[in-house]
Every structure is written in structure tokens, then in C-alpha cells.
Amino acid sequence: MSHLLPxxxxxxxxFPDDLPAFGVGxxxxxxxxxxxxxxxxxIDAGVLAPHAMTLSTSGPDGVVTARTLILKDIxxxxxxxxxxxxxxxxxxxxANPFAALTFFWPALGRQVRVTGPVRQLxxxxxxxxxxxxxxxxxxAAFVGHQSEPLGSREEYAAAYADAVARLAENPRLVxxxxxxxxxxxxxxxxxxxxxxxxxxxxxxxxxxRAWERGLLWP
Length: 218
Ligand SMILES: Cc1cc2nc3c(=O)[nH]c(=O)nc-3n(C[C@H](O)[C@H](O)[C@H](O)COP(=O)(O)O)c2cc1C
Hints:
Number of strands: 9
Bound molecules: flavin mononucleotide
Radius of gyration: 20 Å
Structural class: alpha+beta
Strand content: 25-35%
Shape: globular
CATH class of the domain at 23-133 and 178-216: Mainly Beta
Largest sheet: 6 strands, antiparallel, barrel
């Protein structure tokens, strides 16, 4: 075990010195508008995978799991993501249809947290998302067995090659297991780091179908 780890962990910087200001007084009424502004700024700042988020779920036994996913859209149904319907997250959501999403954009010292109930969207949405994926991602989604133990990399390579061949034969082929879900946000929290550690937290809460806003202690 390394003795260097604690000092190494203490020495790494989290944020640049120069951080954007967060004028909470000018925050829009709808958190999605603020999110879109922050996402654009993350893209402009060159943040890699600014659309990547941690999806946290819990299963029937209360065990919590989290993984990174790509945000696909935000519409009247919620914050949309796409995945297989036979993996751990789908199993968790089937048992407990609530989730949290977390975005982290270190270059800007920003975090966004979303919570809410989740529902699976119609199969047609999953098909549209599947067909919009690049060919290699479609093949990867076709392989199946996600999160099951894998015997060897060769086994995967053979299954992937088989999926590539099937899709080459029929490019309109859709993996039935590919689906989309939407998190209907009931809280959205915006966290802005400040060089003096007086970090700013603004939370939106849905109350009687209207958004209420309030600051949180950092
Ligand atoms: C940056 C990044 C983006 C990812 N995007 C997705 C995605 O959009 N959909 C997906 O099913 N898995 C995606 N993954 C893989 C998941 O993190 C995870 O390994 C997989 O979905 C299995 O999760 P589960 O076993 O908890 O269901 C992504 C991984 C990374 C690192």
C-alpha cells in the first residue's frame, strides 16, 4: 500500500484560479435554461464530454450503483438518456424508478445535480436513438450481455465482429434492448466553486408544478 497517496491526493488541484462568477440574482426561472447556458459555456471552455453525467440508481435491496452516461436531450418528459434494458441500471429502475444525475465540469468549477422519478420512454424513441448512433456504437449495443462476466477479450471480439456483419447485411436492424428513459426533475442544483471557498449553491425545487429557487449553505 502506498504512503504517498494521501499527500498526492491533497496536492492535486481541483479548479483553475480563474472561475466564472455566478449571478444568482439573474438566474432564469426555469433550471433547464440555466443548464443550457452552463452546458454551452462548458463546451466553449473545451470541457471534454460535457454531456457526460453520473446516473445513480438503487436496487430493490437498497444497494446503490452509479455509472457515467451521455445526456441525449431535455424535453417535456425530462432529462433523457439511452441504454440497454437488460443491465443493472434498467433492473434498478424497474424496482425503484428514481434516480440522480450529476454533471461535473472542473474547468469551470461547476457541478449540476438533478433528482427525480424516472420512466422508460416508448420503444420508438429507443429505435430512433439507436439508428442515430455511429455504426460502431450500434454494433457495440447489439452485442448484448452488458455487465455480465466476460470470459475473454477474444469472446467479445467474436461477438462484436458478428454484430458488425449482421448490421452490414441489414443497416436498419435495431437492437430491441436499446431504450431511452427520462428523469422528470424535481430538484436541480447548480454549484459554482469560488476561489475563496464561498461556493455558491442554487437549488430549484418543483412545487405545485412551478419552480421555486433558493440558496443552500455551501
Ligand atoms: C463517458 C461515458 C459515456 C457513457 N455513455 C453511456 C450511455 O450513454 N449509455 C450506456 O448504456 N452506457 C454508457 N456508458 C457506459 C456506462 O458507464 C456503463 O458501463 C454501462 O451502461 C453499464 O452500466 P450498468 O451495468 O450499471 O447498467 C458510458 C461510459 C462513459 C465513461
